[in-house]
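Exercise (ungraded).
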Amino acid sequence: MTDKELCALIREDPARGHAALYDTYANYMYAIIFRILRDRGSREDAEDCLVETLLEIIRHIGCIEPDSLRAYIGQASRNRALNYSAALGRRARGTVPLEDAPEPSETHVEEDVEQKALQSRLLREIEALGEPDSTILIQKYYYDRKSPAWSG
Amino acid sequence: MRKQDIRKVLRHLDEDTAVRLAKKHPGLTDADRTRILARLESGLAAPEAPEEKPAITVSRMHYAATVAACLLVCCGALAGGFALSRMRPPEQIDTTNAVPMDSPVHAVGETYRLGNAGTAVTMTVDSAGHADGICYAQITLSADAPSVFLADNLMAATEESGGIWNAVQPCSIAIPEGSRASRTGIALNPGEPVTIEVQYRLDAESWMLVTSYQTGLPYTQAE
């Protein structure tokens, strides 16, 4: 289904359209949101953020260009997750957490490159294990899921 | 590799890698799908609730540090000559050119001067263009005084979003005297007034001043 067809379906048959929107983009949105919220929030926070972002997209579907749908969804997910992260930080400390602001990347280029290389290698090694081990490792160590949550 | 090392390495995936990873290892299960769709339909059936705008407050810890510093000075610390310059009471922001929250929006390209004469920071807001359906406002900050200016959390909000603040790019920018630094903000709805907020502190170690400045900006889609 193209994005144009998806937008049309959401307008014409909302129930099917919402399910199609979820099936097409939920994992993409969740990947963005979970990555931002995992340090400050729980899985429930990430799910709340996902639901709110989906609501925002559906409510504004008439204003979104179908050709830009993916970009809009990605940016909306990012923005809302950042808002959530800021709000979680404020609840924790009572103020905007300036201390946690990341340093400009120009000052940590070497560390960034080394970190990326290590991540790539680790992910390759995990995939090389094959199924179901690779799924278990990713779900357990990246998504922080307990075993029965994804095996069922 | 230990379990905590695996977690640590995977914790800092960049967005592209996280999205690629999710294609083969999605973070949502069938049970999540059922629950989220049910919540979605329930949310759409309910009236839209206005979101709470985040309040910007001065850290209580920083305020307490300010009070403690003033007491030390008052007790006649002789070594406060250097410490005084670092632990001065919070400055009053020069609001001569400041734009109140409810003021009319201003044209793109105007320059707003922040701070007092000794620690002036200039913020210039102009349009950067339009790509992939997303509208961007370019925000440029420059310091023209002998102090390091660190800006964090450039945020933007639009009227249509109910004034919800989007932390467009939480970051630290160190701007030594005479240099410039840019960060890009995002306006989701072209044609809507956008308020840009800059939170900043005076230098890397003096946390005495934490404040924000807001302006209005009518953003229109680039031709």
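Further reading is listed at the end of the chapter. For now, observe: Chain B has five helices and eight strands. Chain B touches chain A through 66 residues (CB under 8 Å).
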